[in-house]
């Protein structure tokens, strides 16, 4: 059971309170209609799958309900850091 | 008779006898005995039959590593536990244990196939057998193998026991209470922090329990620990796994050591412990040696014989031979000699053995054979003697004995270290992997950390033998019957990775997870491959450390507590009316209300007819509801849903369609605009949480500039649907402050007022095609309002109807149910809902995807209606549809049935289906092949009743 630090609650809580939200820092285009099929495919489906540092979204579903970002090592499952949505990539 | 009780010694209580049975025969032992020690004391050598070959097997170890002596303990109906290791079963009065995998008895096993069938069971046997003809496998081989191979039987009745669970937090958790663990606990406790010390055995002490010289110290340390408020000592508790951030799960056995009469309360307790620091003090397990005949009952680990003698006062034989490649074998032999056990000889592969060991042995008049190896064991069900030879190949000589002790060196118990993803390094002196690095606050002390002086030895358990490896019947994995030659065969057949060799041979895959076999298997593979063990690697250890009951893992989460059952406030009323229920997501919903002896079909037909001819009342409270509030509420919904929302006037409702960004339908529902800045959204019953999460996601992360608040109100509102031509007459007398006339309150509108004196949001909507209302009232008034509507309804012949009737009525109108008529690959156009997509909207979630090439390509599956040629044939939902029923198998399937019912209103069956190019097939006859016949059906529009919609007005 991983403990995850919620940057809004400022507390480490058990992972059962959280829901994974996929890779972070993939912004929805302001006007999707300007995207080519290839660009849209990239936005919709193409994701990084690194061995090591991974930027990902989590939601403190059974807590404050906020979405935030995290850097997790996919080998060790260690969370390097968590930070609020909207903050720059770490 | 071989083993016997020594005149004195041991930690047993010789004044307290314990009576028990083994295979139905009355036996006895002392308090403090294990099942294994008590039986050994009675001369029992044969404990079980092996997994594949039914070879007779005895005791190998004195602890959890025991692979052979697996027993079933019977504590009454539903309380039968198979595969318990006899050395770990505490003796108590009335213990009823039986041996396993024998037929009909342990001594006379009619399917002792060791010679007859052994050619059937080489490495990879299962893989190869699966390639035989399937019919042969099912009819011939599987029944034979099921009889031959196996462990204990699982209980056939429900487990009546209950299991406790708890969370615990501490600064230091120590796993293993041998000398190193106790020292670590005392040191940590002195600092004042909370300390938990757990140990799998009946009492703490670990290796010290087998060393009387340490008993005074042990007693003192135990008393000290017991006196400290900040220390919790948990014996009979196994740490089954280490998980992230020092989260250790441990199972405490509370009653299995007691007689059935004494047992009270929970059987086991699962501890979920979060520790600041974890100290692993799990010791080391002695390795067997691999030589011909090493599985004859009476061949066991030297350390086990020492434990039986010094802890339990039991000699495992009258004349013992020690086969060692390690100093510890000599030390144990001398300790046994001192305890009164007769050691005839010590055989050691090494020529150079420390002189004090040799002197000690000579002083004890033990014959010493350095440079020799055991090359054979005589005896079938018990050891009668051994053959030894110089360097394992010289001229053999026989030594009479009734037990052989193996001292093959030691393997640190690194299981939990590995669970924690700690790395291992090969230690040449140990001939084993020892802990290296970890990112957890975790350390190993004592033997499991590689820090204990066991003396010196050779690594590699395979003894030299006159026979080549491919002829060797020496066993590596006792529990899975893996021989040295199987590992050789696996390599010969091309397997190189230890992970593959493990799976091909099944070495280390039994319930003991290779505690005594992994290292020997690895080193044999290393030898055959001519590559160092470090290049071959070790297989991964995974939880649980020892087999664990599912009961403890489940804890209280069973039956009614398995998962929450959500009930609406009208549920009790439905129960009193004899409703039959179905579960929808976590909700329990009334499916139909049978009267008298009605079956479902009859009840549903009556409910449908009454709704269409008079009126019906339906509990729709489970609908997901979200209150969307704020100045940007309309803009937000406009971006989320396919429909236009900004133009919707307050007081009006709209059917909303929600797509994923991929363009496929994921939810729908009718929503109302109550005020310019306030919407009452509804979602599907199962989709409420998912939709709210999705909306929060967009609101928080994509459009955080929008000023909108979302609140789940699913459980705040009870919803009573009143549907049918008489619906208005039913609610009219109860409603205040709302003009219900068709002109003032048209279809798809909402009004706020009072019903039965309670605030209501009254929707005029219809999921049946009839004149309909949905009465929303605060949940606490739901039951009272329902009863008032019900009483009024009785004047107009109302029925209460359930979800099944609701499904039929909506299908007659072609209304889809998301998740039934859609499956996550259906676009609005596929579902015939293109009209719900706002064409002028520049953007909404999923819009861009609706222009993708695959989405606009012709031939997509489209929702259509089906009318069977035989009007009474009701298609099966999920049935596949073909265009030509005479084509050869496998046929080309062009779609499937999504909804299908008998319609009482129409007097025939109706169905909806997703069919490739469906809307271009109107009038075409398609075919639905079933096991017994092929059903033909005509493609029609998915609208079976009142196409013009006139009934909406009552
Ligand atoms: Zn939070």
Question: Care to describe what's here?
Answer:
The complex is a heterodimer of chains A (90) and B (954). Chain A has 1 helix and 6 strands, in the order E-E-E-H-E-E-E. With 90 residues, chain A is mostly beta strands. In chain A, the strands form 2 sheets. Chain A has a 4-stranded antiparallel beta sheet, with no helix packed on it. Chain A has a two-stranded antiparallel sheet with strand order 1-2. In chain A, strand 1 and strand 2 form a beta hairpin. Chain B is an alpha+beta fold. Among the domains of chain B are: 14-117, Roll (Ubiquitin-like (UB roll)); 164-281, FAD/NAD(P)-binding domain (3-Layer(bba) Sandwich); 469-537, BFD-like [2Fe-2S]-binding domain (Arc Repressor Mutant, subunit A, Orthogonal Bundle), CATH 1.10.10.1100; 836-952, Beta Barrel (Elongation Factor Tu (Ef-tu), domain 3). Chain B is built from 22 helices and 50 strands. In chain B, a hairpin with a 5-residue loop joins strand 35 and strand 36 (665-675). The complex binds zinc ion. The site of zinc ion (ZN) has 7 residues of chain A, from loops. Zinc ion binds at residues 6, 8-9, 60, 63-64, 66 of chain A. Chain B: Pfam families: Fer2_4, GCV_T, GCV_T_C, Pyr_redox_2, SO_alpha_A3. Chain B: GO terms for molecular function: sarcosine oxidase activity.
Q: What are the secondary-structure elements of chain A, in order, as H or E?
A: EEEHEEE
> At CATH's second level, what is the architecture of chain A?
2-Layer Sandwich
Quote the average pLDDT of chain B: 93
CATH-derived topology of chain A: Folate-binding fold
Number of helices of chain A: 1
Estimate the strand proportion of chain A. 35-45%
How many DSSP E strands of chain B? 50
Class of secondary structure makeup of chain A: mainly beta
Computed CA radius of gyration of chain A, to the nearest angstrom: 14 Å
Low-pLDDT segments of chain B: none
Query: Strand tally of chain A, please?
Result: 6
**CATH topology group of one domain in chain B:** FAD/NAD(P)-binding domain
Rg of chain B is 37 Å
| Overall 3D form of chain B | elongated
Under CATH at level 1, the class of chain A stands as: Alpha Beta
- How many angstroms does the end-to-end distance of chain A come to? 24 Å
Strand residue content of chain B: 25-35%
Task: Please tell me the overall pLDDT of chain A.
Answer: 96
**What global shape of chain A is seen?**
globular
Helical content band of chain A? 10-25%
